[in-house]
Amino acid sequence: MLYYLFLRDYSAMEYAESIGQSDRNIRGVRETALKKIRKFYTDVLTYRKENSLSMTIDEKYFLENGVRKKKGR
Question: Which DSSP category does 11 fall into?
Fold first, then answer.
């Protein structure tokens, strides 16, 4: 699903139609997958911070604020 939605740039509706599901279901599954990815990424960044490993400014911002990027960027 992530391949089609992010790499192939399908809309949720296009992907849902291609596999015979509702776009509402696809949006829900997508959000669940993104939450799991963000949680995993937060764990990795926390490990890096605790072990004094280098991080980019964006990674530090994500870890502190739990968002991908600053608003207005």
Answer: -
